Automatic annotation (TrEMBL):
The protein's name: Magnesium transporter CorA family protein
Family annotation (Pfam families): CorA
Main localization, broad class: membrane
Transmembrane regions listed in the UniProt entry: 261-281, 293-312
Compartment annotation: Membrane
Family according to the record: Belongs to the CorA metal ion transporter (MIT) (TC 1.A.35) family.
Membrane-topology descriptor: Multi-pass membrane protein
Superkingdom, taxonomy of origin: Bacteria
Keywords noted in UniProt: Membrane, Transmembrane, Transmembrane helix
Entry-linked InterPro entries: CorA-like, CorA_cytoplasmic_dom, CorA_TM1_TM2, MgTranspt_CorA/ZnTranspt_ZntB
Length: 318
């Protein structure tokens, strides 16, 4: 689907078709004919448009964002999105977003996923800035993406805290499945943020003019936010590894406790089984001729079982 937007009074307004006033073209889950239309209309390299169809595409930049005299410029960045894993828990994945500046000085954003941050920028518009519209829009998108990473990381930290509270009662595999999903999400985040930071650093070298440094404060804020997310991701990944090992140890220890109790109970129950087996033999045995033989055998058996239970508890075996 292709959406055409023009800018009017700091806000974006929908247009039915492309025109000279259109500044931003939003493309979501493009069909084959829409891809061909974009490539032919704006003279774009095919990989600029098709890259987002590959979920494993890595962040990169091509061309000079501020100098499109030779060809269109591409900024491909990774953004996060939540989904439900096969085990039923929240899992965070990263997907590519292409931001293209065409020779007609239009901005084209292409994704294969629906995104909240694009809708947010579209609804709130752009504030007046000393930068050009295409740079202002790019930096706003990068800022919203960096905030998305940190927002999802806050949810991951909350989940990790909840799992830590379940350490004492961890007897099932469900916590381990959830921990696996968290680890997977953090690995994706660490890789995506590292590559995003490299792309943003390269933008430091691109200037609209040799003496222009107006873009640096904006990029600095974006880099600080992304580096904060990367640092948080690395720390949480280490903590999750430790918690995962602790979970495994606790589950294994709880299993050992259960097996210890069952083994001890088996020993205790073996006593009446042995005595019953002995008195089942057809030979002369003590108490065999007494009328209260069963009572005495019962009392002796109970005493022996109680003594064994006391001994096992004394040795912390039961």
């Amino acid at each position: 689907m292709i959406t055409y937007l023009k800018r009017e009074n700091q806000q974006f307004i929908h247009e039915n078709t492309d025109s000279d006033e259109v500044k931003w073209i939003i493309v979501e889950s493009p069909a084959r004919d829409e891809i061909d239309q974009l490539i032919s209309t704006y003279h774009l390299p095919s990989d600029y448009v098709t890259s987002v169809l590959d979920e494993n595409e890595k962040a990169r930049s091509e061309g000079n964002w501020h100098d499109i005299s030779e060809r269109a410029a591409l900024i491909l960045i990774q953004f996060p999105k939540a989904s439900v894993s096969p085990s039923g828990y929240m899992q965070l994945n990263t997907y590519p977003l292409s931001v293209i500046r065409t020779k007609e000085n239009k901005i084209i954003t292409i994704t294969d996923q629906s995104t909240d941050f694009i809708e947010k920028v579209k609804m709130n518009g752009l504030q007046d800035s000393e930068l050009s519209v295409h740079s202002t829009l790019l930096f706003r998108l990068l800022w919203e993406i960096s905030k998305s990473f940190n927002g999802f990381l806050s949810k991951v930290i909350a989940e990790i805290g909840h799992l830590e509270g379940e350490l004492k009662i961890a007897t099932e595999n469900s916590q381990l499945y959830q921990m696996m999903d968290i680890q997977k999400s953090l690995v994706y985040f660490e890789s995506a943020l590292s590559e995003n930071i490299n792309v943003v650093k390269r933008l430091y070298d691109d200037r609209e003019s040799p003496d222009s440094y107006d873009h640096l404060p904006h990029l600095h804020d974006i880099l600080v936010e992304m580096k904060q997310g990367l640092t948080t991701t690395s720390i949480q990944l280490k903590l999750v590894d430790q918690i995962s090992n602790t979970f495994s140890s606790i589950v294994s220890n709880n299993l050992n406790i259960v097996m210890k109790i069952l083994t001890s109970l088996t020993i205790v129950l073996t006593i009446p089984t042995i005595i019953g087996g002995v008195y089942g033999m057809n030979i002369k045995l003590p108490f065999a001729n007494r009328e209260d033989a069963f009572l005495w055998i019962f009392l002796i058996t109970s005493f022996l079982c109680g003594a064994v239970i006391y001994f096992l508890k004394k040795r912390n075996l039961l």
